[in-house]
Design a protein that fits this description.
Blueprint (H helix, E strand, L loop, with lengths): L1 H8 L6 E4 L1 H16 L11 E5 L26 H8 L3 E6 L37 H8 L5 E6 L5 H6 L3 E4 L19 E6 L2 H11 L17 H5 L7 E5 L9 H16 L3 E5 L7 H16 L19 H12 L2 H14 L4 H25 L2 E5 L15 H5 L6 H6 L3 E8 L5 E8 L4 H11 L1
Parallel strand pairs: 2-3, 2-4, 7-8, 7-9
Antiparallel strand pairs: 1-3, 4-6, 5-6, 5-10, 9-11, 10-11
Helix pairs in contact: 9-11, 9-12
Bound molecules: glutamine.
Glutamine binds next to loops.
Length: 452
């Protein structure tokens, strides 16, 4: 009830697209009944969480913040939200996101922008980051204890950084994608947004696991993530990639990174300079691969099977498709569909899509070579703190540049966490990122805990 009150008191943030108080109270009662009966409670029993609107929830409207899914009520539950439910977590509601998870500021939701609780009220508000901005705003505003996010190129880590939270993108395949609305299927991965590293470990332990319904879900045992949190970093080798020292990096980000290095050294880790030579191609590669997959995934929204259908008079099926899609998709989604269709088209496939896939392999190989030398990599999460609503909005490339430090780990499918690294000169929270070996979330969590 306290969390429902907090949710109501912070509605001006616009973090939730659907509130589900009846479900929350019913699940809380169920957890409490288990407690009264003396049953052993799990770590998520009765814990109020928010669910990003990208996860299908049975009987509860799910739109991925897009007008084209207006009125869609899934008849099934995503595996990740079902796992949380089975563990006793209490769903408070569905959180806003950039439309179809395409964005870095949570400004493209059909229900309007989300405000970062750290920023000023009024017109000069700060963005919470994106695309999981609603989840991050809800946790930062203390309405939810934790929230689910999804990360395709940074959408868990970057909003966590902008809102002073922990955000963990697991290894690709660690969490099932079944029932998650697809953006770019070879990159999409679910993960937790929480206040602490320990909470992230607990929540991931519940969300993760093999799922026969997702052929890319890994059949690998889920370790005790919570036990790994306090392992310490003594004797670990931590890599500092020189290519992440980009031109024009603000002084507060340089300082954040140096402070992180100092903390790890003091805790007994060894710092090693490393090189990830293909880093400079990562952003361009991502912005070919992700739109290509999106253009294919979004072909299913045709006005027949889900959500919105045009009410205009049409004289053919093709016209119905065209009008429905023109009305239902926002500008950024249309831009991605056009880029994706272009790079996949017969005349340009070799020059763009195939090339991007080749570079993606090189980027993954860079990481593999680095992990022969080090146990984890430390870098900033984003090149700046949260920015104001209105900034970067007219220039998609400026917006895409906010993802420069998060997309490489996504392209390589590696686990990465963003942890609060303190408050910068701007008075805003900054995030430090730890990237680990494939399926080694345990080291990522232990290093994250050491700098949190
Ligand atoms: N900001 C990136 C994009 O717009 C990443 C989004 C995400 O991870 N879903 O594609």
């Amino acid at each position: 009830r306290a969390h429902l009150d907090a949710m109501a008191a912070t509605r001006s943030l616009n973090a939730f697209v659907v509130e589900t108080p009846e479900i929350a109270l019913a699940r809380a009662d169920e957890a409490d009944a288990r407690r009264v009966r003396g049953e052993a409670l799990g770590p998520m029993d009765g814990v109020p969480v928010a669910i990003k609107d990208l996860f299908c929830t049975e009987g509860v409207a799910t739109t991925a913040s897009s007008k084209i899914l207006d009125g869609f009520v899934p008849p099934y539950e995503s595996t990740v939200s079902a796992n949380l439910k089975a563990a006793g977590a209490v769903m408070l509601g569905k959180t806003s996101m950039d439309e179809f998870a395409m964005g870095s500021a949570n400004i493209t939701a059909a229900t309007g922008p989300v405000r970062n609780p750290w920023g000023p009220e009024g017109d000069a508000f700060l963005v919470p980051g994106g695309s999981s901005g609603g989840s991050a705003a809800a946790v930062a505003a203390r309405s939810a204890i934790a929230a689910t996010g999804s990360d395709t190129g940074g959408s868990i880590r970057q909003p966590a950084a902008y809102c002073g939270l922990v955000g963990l993108k697991p290894t690709y395949g660690r969490c099932s994608r079944w029932g998650m609305i697809a953006f770019a299927s070879s990159l999409d991965q679910a993960g937790p947004i929480t206040r602490t590293v320990e909470d992230a470990a607990i929540m991931l332990g519940t969300m993760a696991g093999h799922d026969p319904k997702d052929s890319t879900s890994a059949d690998i045992a889920v370790p005790d993530f919570r036990a790994a949190v306090n392992r310490g970093v003594k004797g670990l080798k931590i890599g500092i990639p020189k290519e992440y020292r980009v031109d024009g990096m603000p002084a507060e980000i340089e300082k954040l990174w140096a402070d992180g290095v100092a903390m790890l050294k003091a805790a007994g880790a060894e710092i090693v300079d490393i090189s990830l030579p293909h880093t400079k191609y990562a952003l361009a590669t991502y912005y070919i691969v992700a739109p290509a997959e999106a253009s294919s995934n979004l072909a299913r929204y045709d006005g027949v099977r889900y959500g919105h259908r045009t009410k205009a008079n049409v004289s053919s099926l093709a016209e119905m498709y065209e009008k429905t899609r023109a009305e239902g998709f926002g500008r950024e989604v249309k831009r991605r569909i056009m880029i994706g269709t272009y790079v996949l088209s017969a005349g340009y496939y070799d020059a763009y899509y195939l090339k991007a896939q080749q570079v993606r392999t090189r980027i993954a190989a860079d990481f593999a070579a680095a992990f022969d030398q080090v146990d984890a990599i430390l870098a900033p999460t984003a090149p700046s703190a949260a920015f104001r609503f209105g900034e970067k909005m007219d220039d998609p490339v400026q917006m895409y540049l906010t993802d420069v430090f998060t997309v490489p780990a996504s392209l390589a499918g590696l686990p990465a966490i963003s942890v609060p690294g303190g408050i910068g000169e701007s008075g805003l929270p900054l995030g430090l990122q730890v990237i680990g070996r494939s399926f080694d979330e345990e080291t990522v969590l232990a290093v994250g805990r050491a700098i949190e």
